[in-house]
């Protein structure tokens, strides 16, 4: 991978929330960030605020053709992709026995197929250029389960296993792949899932006594995509204030 300044970093779901904080951190480290999101207007606005040559692009990670079009635009414009952060995700909280199979489809398509689609398209670019760093945003739900998030947990657990395998398959090309598992983190997604009082009860249960911020997750991603983490691959890192350990 090239030095940290001047890297080209694609961050999905970067128009807001955790993805936005990751985009900020990578831009501050000197990367040119591609803010890739379903919400094009917010992606373009975020890119304008980031500066450093950042661009906002519309993509639906659940759709392979949309991902291919975006990656070909990025390669046409910048000629390489050094960092891929698969952050786009979605969930709808409800007990599994009451859930609608149409929602399973949407949850798996966005969360799991989204990562497969981008990796299928970007890994050949990284292999060809002889290096790169992939960070997949999974969830502690995929490690320890989470009531009301059964299918999401399955998709996130799938991301963790997938990340380990692509780490093995691409290591010889100097491509690293790691999974970051946020615990409860203060974003619009958390607000849509948590009922009243959840924030307070979680803050009491979390050893560090607060729910996470998008910046907490961004710090871990910045490290794992930096040269400092060049010898770390296939790992799963929780950013959860100690809520989950091991
Ligand atoms: P968020 O809803 O605030 O932001 C998600 C972003 O992804 C939005 O900008 C949205 O437009 C975009 N997006 C959604 N579907 C997309 C698609 N198909 N294609 C492209 N972009 C799409 O969510 P967040 O809380 O910032 O979550 C970011 C990631 O962190 C997700 O993968 C989520 O599962 C994971 N996560 C979040 C928490 C939490 O508590 N917030 C906990 C664990 C894991």
Structural features, described:
The protein has 246 residues and is α/β, with parallel strands linked by helices. It has a single domain (8-183, 214-237), classed as 3-Layer(aba) Sandwich (Rossmann fold). 48% of the residues lie in helices and 15% in strands. It is built from nine helices and seven strands. It has helices at 17-28, 40-50, 64-78, 101-129, 141-144, 150-170, 188-193, 198-205, 214-224, and strands spanning 8-12, 32-37, 55-58, 83-86, 132-137, 175-182, 236-239. The chain has a seven-stranded parallel sheet with strand order 3-2-1-4-5-6-7, with helices on both faces. The longest helix is centred in the middle third of the chain and has 29 residues, at 101-129. The model has no long low-confidence stretch (mean pLDDT 96). Nicotinamide-adenine-dinucleotide is lined by residues 12-13, 15-19, 37-39, 59-62, 87-90, 110, 114, 137, 139, 182, 184-185, 187-190.
Could you give the topology of this structure?
Layout: E1 8-12, H1 17-28, E2 32-37, H2 40-50, E3 55-58, H3 64-78, E4 83-86, H4 101-129, E5 132-137, H5 141-144, H6 150-170, E6 175-182, H7 188-193, H8 198-205, H9 214-224, E7 236-239
Parallel strand pairs: 1-2, 1-4, 2-3, 4-5, 5-6, 6-7
Helix pairs in contact: 1-9, 3-4, 4-6
The structure holds nicotinamide-adenine-dinucleotide.
Nicotinamide-adenine-dinucleotide is lined by residues 12-13, 15-19, 37-39, 59-62, 87-90, 110, 114, 137, 139, 182, 184-185, 187-190.
